Amino acid sequence: MQLQESLGQIKAIYAGLSPIKKITLFSVIAGVIAGLSAIIILSGRPDYQILFSGLSAEDSGAMIAQLKAKKIPYRISSNGGAILVPKEIVYETRMELASQGLPQGGGIGFEIFDNSKLGMTEFVQNVNYQRAIQGELSRTINRFEEIESSRVHLVMPPKSLFVENEEPARASVVIKLRSRKTLNPEQIQGIVHLISSSVAGLKPENVTIVDSMGNQIGSKKSKNDLESIRTDQLAYQEKVEQTLETRVKTMLENALGPNKAIVRLSSNMDFKKQERTEERYYPENKVVRSEQISNESSLKPDKTAMGVPGSTAATADKTQQGAADASPGNAGFQKQHQTTNYEIGKTTSHTVEPIGQITNISVAVLVDGAYKTVVGDDGASKLEYVPRTPEEIAKIKSIVMRAVNYTASRGDEVEVVNIPFENSELAEVQAGASGWVSRLMQYSDYIKYVFSAVFMVLTFIFVIRPIIQWLTSESSKEAELIGQLPRTINEIEGEYGVSPKTLPISHQLSQLAIADNQAFVEVLREWMKQN
């Protein structure tokens, strides 16, 4: 019964609307339905994330075929180099494709032998083996972060029975680098040795590497080349300066705050190679090295008898012999010779001076001041710059000198200046904003549904409800005005044969007020609550 009365009231209200209001009503209904449908579709549509990017055409085709077979929804980027899948199954899909060897990285690897045909000739097998090695090397090189794609060409001459007739293997590599990426000499040499170690009989000097523009990036210059040595020296000097700058800057930023200090450091280095050999002797430190002693002694021989044998001669000889024995000088001689060699203490040192020794350092440091909030005359708060005191500057300078190993004897210089930085407040605001954004992005899934619900509520309160009130209020006013106009004879005659249910709302309310005052008051209260 109430439903029929409500429908009757709606029909009466709709009948009292003008054509413009009817069009407006239908437009609002259509807009609400379209908006709700869009919100439901957008909220229910999954978020897509990149599954793999930078793929070749072969890998993209193989992956799409696997995704279709597994009935996994996917999307392809505008350039076709990336494949996107729903966020919830990104990692699961990656593991499934990895178990099947995708992405392969371009080219054909050793999987070419998975479908070997019976009766394959040796020539075909050798060609397939060469293709497999080229493909595997290309896949390995593509793993480098700086390399987008690569192709490897090998020249593998047949083996000869005679060693002198064998030709060396050769290799050519074409590399396409990613945007704003470069390869340093160590990485280039690493690629050269990787390829030469993977192919039998291939020497590093027979490997050529070029970029996508045709420029050779593999250098065959020796380490003794003057230009190469100079480049290495400059690179070493720059690395030392950056290390010292980073040491000072991180220390100051941890103490003063981020973006509060600027550090620039320059150094002079001595790259001369010096060798020195020094010998020192210590006379007081002597040791016997060798000693030689020789003794020599002799005795005079006895005098033989001379003259005519006889008593007189014998007696004379005995007298002379006795006299000779009595004299001490007739005992002979004794000689002793001694030679001693001494070793003097000695120290021999061979010193090689280090290459790239710092001769002096110059450091320039800019330090920002502090900021405090000040209320102006107009009541608005603003930040006021407060310079740092000389004591603070002196402490900062002392810390910087210790961090760079300041040595006054070699002419080191350190200068610390306090000046206000430009846009420091803006940088802090941006840093805080970026932090809030990163935190909110963690709850993006929930924010999406909350935003949809809030949008629907606000649309109903501020758009739909005012329009409905405007339509119903104008229609009720028009109905009242029409009811106050003089009625025609046909209207008066038609009222007698019409039931109270089909009478206008104003007449029904009049009858309700006459029949039941309490019910009429309740109806008015409900209408007032709705309005």
Describe what this molecule looks like in 3D.
With 531 residues, the chain is an alpha+beta fold. It is built from 14 helices and 13 strands. Strands 1-3-2 form a three-stranded antiparallel β-sheet, with helices on one face. Strands 4-5-6 form a three-stranded mixed β-sheet. It has a three-stranded mixed β-sheet with strand order 7-10-13, with helices on one face. Helix 2 packs antiparallel against helix 11 and helix 13 (505-515) crosses helix 14. The protein is elongated.
Task: Draw up the topology in text.
Layout: H1 2-15, H2 19-44, E1 48-53, H3 57-69, E2 75-76, E3 82-86, H4 90-99, H5 122-141, E4 147-155, E5 169-177, H6 185-198, E6 202-211, H7 226-256, E7 261-270, E8 275-298, H8 311-326, E9 333-352, E10 357-367, E11 370-375, E12 381-386, H9 390-403, E13 413-418, H10 424-441, H11 444-484, H12 489-496, H13 505-515, H14 517-530
Parallel strand pairs: 5-6, 10-13
Antiparallel strand pairs: 1-3, 2-3, 4-5, 7-10, 8-9, 11-12
Please estimate the helix content: 40-55%
Indicate the overall shape: elongated
Radius of gyration: 54 Å
Strand order of the biggest β-sheet: 1-3-2
Strand content: 15-25%
User: What are the low-pLDDT stretches, counting only 5+ consecutive residues below 50?
Assistant: 429-434
Mean pLDDT comes to 76
Structural category: alpha+beta
**What is the count of DSSP helices, taking H or I runs of 4+ residues?**
14
Distance between the termini: 24 Å
Largest sheet: 3 strands, antiparallel
The arrangement of helices and strands along the chain is: HHEHEEHHEEHEHEEHEEEEHEHHHHH
What is the strand tally? 13
- Oligomer state equals single chain
